[in-house]
Amino acid sequence: MNEAIFFNPGDAIASSHDFKEARRSAQIIKAERPTGRQIVIAKNDKSGVYAVYYADKMQEDQTGTAYHIEDKL
What does the pLDDT profile of the chain (73 residues) look like in tens digits? Predict the structure, then answer.
């Protein structure tokens, strides 16, 4: 995806510099806390950090930090 999505970094449920590690964390979270909420893995292009968020935490007003969605669970 080329579109920037905005999140508040404080809403991240996990983060890592490694995509595989972030994906594994997201899978563990999804397995341990089953919910209907979608989980996304997003990359901060400035810092290179991957963060795991619940999709419903996206900011509509473009405040927060810009990320690009890398994967959805």
Answer: 467 888 888 889 999 999 999 999 999 999 998 888 899 999 998 899 999 999 887 777 777 888 899 999 8
Distances (CA, A) of 18 to 14, 27, 35, 52: 12, 14, 25, 12
Range of 15's domain?
A: 5-72
Looking at the chain, which runs of residues are DSSP E strands? 5-7, 14-16, 39-43, 50-54, 65-72
Number of domains in the chain: 1
3-state secondary structure of 52: strand
- pTM (two decimals): 0.84
